[in-house]
Amino acid sequence: MFGFFRTLLLDPKDAESAHQLASERPYLGNDFFPSLPSVRDVLAAEMPWSPRFKLTFGYDVPDAVPPPALRCHWQDNGIKLHQVAIDFSSENTSETGLGGAYDVPSYEFAARFGLRQLPGTLDLVGLDGRRASAAFRADEPWRGHLLFLRRDLVEDFAGDQRIMQAAWGEREVTVDWRSVPSWVREAQRSHANVWRHIRMLGAAQRNPES
Fold first, then answer.
1. Where in the chain are the domains?
2. CB count in 10 Å sphere of residue 30
3. Which of 93-130 are b and which e, b meaning 16 or more Cβ less than 10 Å from the residue's Cβ?
4. Which of 67, 155, 182, 186 could make an S-S bridge to 57, C-beta 3.0–4.6 Å?
5. In this structure, are strands 38-40 and 85-89 parallel, antiparallel, or unpaired?
6. Is the peptide bond before 48 cis (omega within 30 degrees of 0)?
7. Three-class SS state of 41
8. In the chain, how many H helices and how many E strands?
C-alpha cells in the first residue's frame, strides 16, 4: 500500500466545494493535489531569509509560478490554495549542497513568525529557541518526504482559513502480471483499490474554547 498526505489552506467560501471535489472524484491521480512549488539554485544557508527564496505566483509575471489550485480539468482556474511549504533543493555542486530535495516551510510562513535556520539542518526555530519545523526524507527501500510544522504556528498562520487534511493511496497485491486475475483488473477499473480520508478543520474545531 502506498499513500500521499497533504495539508491545504482554503478560503472559507471554497471549503465545501473543495471537500466535495476531493471526496467524489473517482481517481485522484498523482497531481490532483498539486505538488509543492519548487525553489532551486538557492544556497541552503540562505533558507529561509533570502529574497530569492520567495516565490511569485501568477501567469503574466516573469519567473512567476502558476498558482496552486484544485482543478477538475487542467484548463480550469480551480480552487485557490494558500502556500505553507515548498520543495527545496539547493545547488548540489558544492559542500553546501543538500544532495536532494526536501519539503520546507515557505518564505511567507517563516517570515510571519521570524523563524531562523537551526545550524546544520533545514529545520527552523523561533527567536525563543523553540523548534518550529522539522524536515525529513526517506530513501531506499522507502521513499518520501515529511514536513513537520508546529501546530500552534499552523493555526495562527491559517487564521480564518479552513484547513483540509487529505490522505489517499492505493492497495496493491502481488500477482503474476503475465496472468492477472480478473478480480484485480476489475478492482483497478472501478478504483476499488483506492483508499482516501479527507478531513476539514475550521476555526471552531481548532480552538474549541473560542
1. 2-206
2. 7
3. eeeeebeebbbbbbbebbeebebebeeeebbbbeeeee
4. 67
5. parallel
6. yes
7. coil
8. 5, 12
Rounded to 5 degrees, φ, ψ at 91 are: -65, 140
The pTM is what? 0.77
Q: Which residues contact 176 (CB under 8 A, 6 or more apart)?
A: none
CB 204 within 8 A of CB 166: no
Q: Look up cell 487534511; give the residue.
A: 165
Whose cell is 500552534? That residue is: 152
pLDDT in tens, 93-116: 444 456 678 889 999 999 999 999
Is there a contact between 179 and 201 (Cβ–Cβ < 8 Å)? no
Tell me the pLDDT tens digit for each residue of 117-167. Answer: 998 888 999 999 999 999 988 777 777 788 999 999 998 998 889 999 899
Helices (H), the chain: 15-24, 107-112, 151-158, 182-190, 203-206
C-alpha cell of 182? 480478473
- Which class for 166: exposed (0-12), middle (13-18), buried (19 or more C-beta within 10 A)? buried
